[in-house]
């Protein structure tokens, strides 16, 4: 039973993290693209395109982080010291960015400052998330159930590559979201940005995918030996399909299809990482079963979580439904 509960919880944590990435990813992407707004009206529309939902999107970050602390305390105790700096910077950036949402609408003199804060907070948060992911992929040194690495182990060329890759990917999500939510010249420009960002994102996915198997022999074996290769080879094939959907949707000037295709690229990349990790909770040596809390804690927390997740999904879906449709100048958050 503990084995089963541990893997159920690993799936729930993975679901929360993936949901955070695909939801908060596009509003961070709009922040990254914010300087491309050519006028105050453009920037107002860009911010209003995510203003009703951005804080709800971050619920999943709390659920993922809180769930990790509650049900995988050993993993939490290892990961936090290893990634203390990028995680702290990410949280500060998210706070600063959240403040910008409020303050930008209440000032004229300092509006440029809060525009810069919105851009800087979004970009730094995305970069730190990618760096933390890269550091986790390359492995965390553990001895005696504790982190045994150095202060700067998280900062490597590979982790920086994954950080920049995530910034580009989030910008793609943001551009396709604005294609969906805006119209006129702003939508046309974002469609052009999405064309270019799609190419950049695919190049980064290719580079990270080529380097990942060499971060640990287990990754290499899993990717290039049967039966694991049957799953890993399916990922790039499906990725080609989502790429076709992205560019066909952009060429035909569809609104929704490019955004869904960009989300599909993220989901497939996440699946690829999951294939590399499984059954590790903290690569290369801490498994899901080893990192899990006692069975009693897992069962107790699971009851509340199975009630909470449908509620979160319901109010999130309702918020998106209420604020569906195009955002125009003069609409929204004031």
Span of the ends, CA to CA: 52 Å
Tally the beta strands: 4
Q: Give the total of domains.
A: 1
What fraction of residues sit in β-strands? under 5%
The rough form would be described as: globular
How would you classify the quaternary structure?
single chain
- Provide the structure class: mainly alpha
Write down the overall mean pLDDT. Answer: 87
What level of helicity do the residues show? over 70%
N-to-C series of helices and strands? HHHHHHHEEHHHHHEEHH
| Computed CA radius of gyration, to the nearest angstrom | 20 Å
**Main sheet, how many strands, which sense, barrel?**
2 strands, antiparallel
Number of distinct helices? 14
| Widest sheet, order of strands | 1-2
Unreliable residue runs: none
Describe the protein's topology.
Elements: H1 2-33, H2 40-48, H3 54-57, H4 59-71, H5 73-82, H6 84-103, H7 111-138, E1 142-143, E2 146-147, H8 157-181, H9 184-211, H10 217-224, H11 228-251, H12 257-277, E3 280-282, E4 286-287, H13 288-291, H14 295-322
Antiparallel strand pairs: 1-2, 3-4
Helix pairs in contact: 1-4, 1-7, 1-8, 1-14, 4-5, 6-7, 7-8, 8-9, 8-12, 9-11, 10-11, 11-12
Describe this structure in words.
The chain is mainly alpha-helical and 334 residues long. It has 14 helices and four strands. It has one domain. Strand 1 and strand 2 (146-147) form a beta hairpin. It is globular. The chain starts with a helix and ends in a 12-residue tail after the last helix. The model has no long low-confidence stretch (mean pLDDT 87).
């Amino acid at each position: 039973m503990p084995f089963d509960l541990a893997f159920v919880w690993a799936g729930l944590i993975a679901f929360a993290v993936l949901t955070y990435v695909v939801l908060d990813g596009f509003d961070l992407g709009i922040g990254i693209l914010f300087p491309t707004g050519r006028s105050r009206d453009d920037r107002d529309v860009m911010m209003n395109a995510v203003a009703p939902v951005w804080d709800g999107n971050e619920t999943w970050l709390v659920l993922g982080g809180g769930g990790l602390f509650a049900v995988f305390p050993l993993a939490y105790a290892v990961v936090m010291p290893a990634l203390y700096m990028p995680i702290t910077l990410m949280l500060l950036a998210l706070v600063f960015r959240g403040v910008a949402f409020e303050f930008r609408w209440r000032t004229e003199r300092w509006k440029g400052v809060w525009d810069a804060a919105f851009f800087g907070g979004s970009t730094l948060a995305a970069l730190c998330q990618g760096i933390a992911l890269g550091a986790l992929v390359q492995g965390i040194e553990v001895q005696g159930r504790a982190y045994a690495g150095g202060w700067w182990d998280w900062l490597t060329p590979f982790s920086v590559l994954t950080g920049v890759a995530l910034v580009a990917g989030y910008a793609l999500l943001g551009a396709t979201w604005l294609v969906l939510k805006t119209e006129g010249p702003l939508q046309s420009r974002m469609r052009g940005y999405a064309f270019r960002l799609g190419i950049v994102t695919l190049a980064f996915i290719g580079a990270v995918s080529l380097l990942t198997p060499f971060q640990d022999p287990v990754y290499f074996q899993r990717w290039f030996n049967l039966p694991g290769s049957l799953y890993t080879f399916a990922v790039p094939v499906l990725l080609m399909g989502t790429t076709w959907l992205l560019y066909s949707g952009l060429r035909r000037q569809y609104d929704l299809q490019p955004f869904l295709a960009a989300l599909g690229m993220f989901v497939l990349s996440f699946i690829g990482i999951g294939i590399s990790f499984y059954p590790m909770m903290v690569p290369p040596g801490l498994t899901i079963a080893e990192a899990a809390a006692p069975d009693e804690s897992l069962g107790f927390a699971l009851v509340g979580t199975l009630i909470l997740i449908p509620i979160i999904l319901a109010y999130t879906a309702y918020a998106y439904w209420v604020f569906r449709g195009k955002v125009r100048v003069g609409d929204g958050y004031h």
